[in-house]
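PROTEIN FOLDING TASK:
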Amino acid sequence: MKVLVAEDDDHLRAGLVEILEGEGYSVVAARNGRQAFQMFQEDGPDFVCLDIMMPGMNGYDLCREIRKRNATVPVIFISAKSEEVDKVLGLELGADDYIMKPFGVREVVARIRAVTRRCLSQRPLEETAGASFRMADLEIVPSELRAHRPGATAMELSLRDVKILRLLHDHRGRVVDRITFFRECWGLGHLPNSRTLDQHVAQLRKRVEVNPKQPAIILTVHGVGYRYNGSSEAVEPV
């Protein structure tokens, strides 16, 4: 899923790109409104994050132009403008959400996941991450970015989490090597780094395993990668 970020502050733009890429999105970034509008026309993003006060074309005008061409693409305003009238105007222009600066990483992630769920729910099944699937006693629902276990609270997942679980599920009983994980779940432009993969898997285990120290879903194959056996069999992790 591709996201367009339009933000004239270099540090904030880099921060938003880092957050989104960490979630598993493909990101294109613009430093002003006119550049963002050109990218929107050329790249066809799945949703858009817009600052309001930008040179060339402000976020309100950019949102108007986007809505003339696409009435449904989700738009999130991220702005320091805090007056209620600013929020109302943004929502009246067709924005799906409005995030205030300064913002926390968790808030941005939560808002973006919520918009992503709405986006995925409106697509035909074959255009989303696919149908729900089960791993041990866990049901993964890609369109919700959630996993469900009987008697437990639903677990929040990122796009990348879903990709990792889907890859293991589709290769159940076989080892998925590290290169395959990076190619399928990070993209060709990402430089493989075992530490990146292992840290992500460690955090994912904390959410999806009943006992992360005795995993039943994401099993370590030392020196190679990871495997899902298609059962509740557990082994000691690294």
User: Anything to note?
Assistant: The domain at 2-121 is CATH 3.40.50.2300 (Rossmann fold). The chain has two domains: 2-121, 133-227.
